[in-house]
Amino acid sequence: MRILAVYYFVWYCAVSVLIPYTSLYFSEQGYTSTKVGLILSLWAMVSVVAQPVMGIINDRIGNPRTIMILCAVVSPLLGMGFQWTSGIAAVLVLSVFFAWFQSSGGPIGDAIAVEIASQRGFSFGSVRLWGALSYAIGTFATGILYEKYGYDNIFNYYLVFSLLICVVIVFLPSAKLKRSRAPLFGQIGEVMRNKPYIVFIVTSMLMMMSANMNMTFLPLYFKEMNFDKSWIGSAFAIAALIEVPMFWVAVKLSKRMGRYQLLCLASAIYGVQYFMMFAFESVSMTLSLQLLNGVAFAFIAGTSVEVVQSLSSEGTKATQQTLYTAISWGLGGIIGSALGGVLVDGLGAHYLYLILCGLCTIAAVLFFAFRRHQQQVAPTVAA
Length: 383
Known about the structure:
CATH architecture: Up-down Bundle
Radius of gyration: 19 Å
Oligomer: single chain
Subcellular location: Cell inner membrane
Helix content: over 70%
CATH topology: Growth Hormone, Chain: A
Largest sheet: none
Mean pLDDT: 78
Domain Major facilitator superfamily (MFS) profile: 1-375
Distance between the termini: 22 Å
Number of strands: 0
CATH class: Mainly Alpha
Keywords: Cell inner membrane, Cell membrane, Membrane, Transmembrane, Transmembrane helix, Transport
Low-confidence stretches: 376-383
Membrane topology: Multi-pass membrane protein
Protein name: MFS transporter
């Protein structure tokens, strides 16, 4: 449990120095919002393919630590190339290789963590909350650091933390996910015939698409509203800090009200946040509303991974975790980043949040409509 907590702490430190600031990094390099959206949507597009492919490879070779170390080493080295690459064409080519490895390690790590947690009798949320804590610390510190010194060195910091991740991975528990014995296409077919699982990831994609657009374009919202950009890191930190206790709360609420109902509540909370950001043009209000963002995300992250695990068969757990991430975050990110960039250029970041409110409202209705699937999930979890 302790080494998993350290793993999530270091992993999300690495995420905190990079992901929240990529839109500003490319924007500061002179790219328009549409081009920034194109670059980030390509990252998401690559992840849709990379994550399930790497998950399938992991399920077949049964050695997740090797794949995780490979991703942790290769992705920052490729990321360094953005500092010496100019021109949208060259950036897009490099993005394909960078996104392949950067996106694949996390879902495999989640699959290992959930499996170890279930075998050793503790909740996934009890270790995942350390990632929320490190993300809060990291985004707060880097927001101040980047505003003072600029965004040119974000990939250097990412390299440092990625090397630390490699060290921690070596000490992860030796428990392995069960290897798949089915033929490759049989393994894929087994996943695709799992109807409750497919329903879940498609519905999740809609909600995560809005969350992805918020994460990507919140810095540009600050820029358009003429807010002090040094508060960007604080905005992400506020959201991440409240996640720490909310992961614990999510465990209690999912048992009391049901997982689908909790996801419905999370979607509604997101919707309220986005509507308030549309209605009130205030930096203090925007910062306060990040509390809602953190609550909603903790409810999702603390619940969805366990739902996927409960819906996964032996030998496909990593495949289904990575496919869930690829569809919900990846495909949702493709649509969200590309559409969000166009909307920001055409309507402005302000009106983007009204659209995000509508997307979350639809997701909340869908999760409520599919709550009957919780009856299928619960016996599996109990088993």
